[in-house]
């Protein structure tokens, strides 16, 4: 979805159309930007930027609070459109998903035609614009979806993958930010084709073992399958920042949002998990994962946040490079009912579970804005 949070706000308040809109933070400049529409981006505003900086760049912008529950409800409506065409839908976040259409073409026609129908359905029923990439694998489809935003439909046929990738800037590779892009350029690598043609052994010497993953992507190689929620061995969300982030408060705010999304998905799927994990990808290509196993499986947002926050603040290197990607997930899943008896042995845990359950039911029946969290989970801010 294009500028999802901001686009939802424009849809709900037509008077905002054409004006720069920033979602996230306070008029006093506290907090971080969760989303900015394209009118605000022309002033240099982007997600994960401190709100104070965004208001300095664009002082006449309309600043709105994040309505995460509302965006989650809109995302549910969007997923319902996807499920008309395929059961193989793998959400990446509230506003992005992979769809596998390979078994549905007899019913609905070629994949590019289905992509157009999905875009039209979303525009008509949800009044939002999507950009879609159609390609033989997940990586190429992701690059295609980002290439001509907003309102794009980019199709890459199987025989066209290398011709499509080669001329693109190396920064188009998944996980390569501005800092990493400059490092490549220092070694004469400006395009994906330049990287593809560089011997792998040489790349390893220059950039370490992480270079192999990027080299394979440059070849258009990505064997990963689309894994629907019901078959997932883990539930996770991640976000790639427009600019590498080193502000602890910005990272903490984004991790909190990701944790809320993961908790909602676990409860929606009737699952609990025992292992909480965070993932960070630095500007220098290194990717770290840190995990913590809980005493018992949970789907309680507060417990997930306690674990995720601890991993972020206590398990990463003291002096680490700026972060390009941040993710949060839960694995070691089991059906929700499997741990029911043990769960309610703890009164505090039982109270949090009831709060989550009541909140989910109210939002499902009366809409996502009927009930919202009052503030940060730990009260620190």
Structure description:
Strand 4 and strand 5 form a beta hairpin. Helix 13 packs antiparallel against helix 14. This protein starts with a helix and ends in a 15-residue tail after the last helix. It contains 16 helices and eleven strands. The protein has 381 residues and is of the alpha+beta class. The strands form four sheets. A four-stranded antiparallel beta sheet has the order 8-11-9-10, covered by helices on one side.
Short description:
This protein is 43% helix and 19% strand. By secondary structure, it is an alpha+beta fold. A 4-stranded antiparallel beta sheet has the order 8-11-9-10, covered by helices on one side. Strands 2-1-3 form a 3-stranded mixed beta sheet.
Counting DSSP H or I runs of 4 or more residues, the number of helices is 16
Across the major sheet, the strand order is: 8-11-9-10
Main beta sheet: strand number and arrangement?
4 strands, antiparallel
Low-pLDDT runs of 5+ residues are 340-345, 367-381
> How do the helices and strands follow one another from N- to C-terminus?
HEEHHEHEEHHEHEHHHHHEHEEHEHH
Topology:
Layout lengths: L3 H9 L8 E3 L11 E2 L1 H4 L9 H7 L4 E3 L3 H16 L5 E5 L2 E4 L5 H4 L2 H15 L6 E3 L3 H10 L5 E3 L5 H5 L12 H9 L5 H6 L2 H8 L2 H9 L15 E12 L2 H22 L1 E12 L4 E12 L2 H14 L8 E13 L4 H4 L3 H20 L15
Helix pairs in contact: 11-12, 13-14
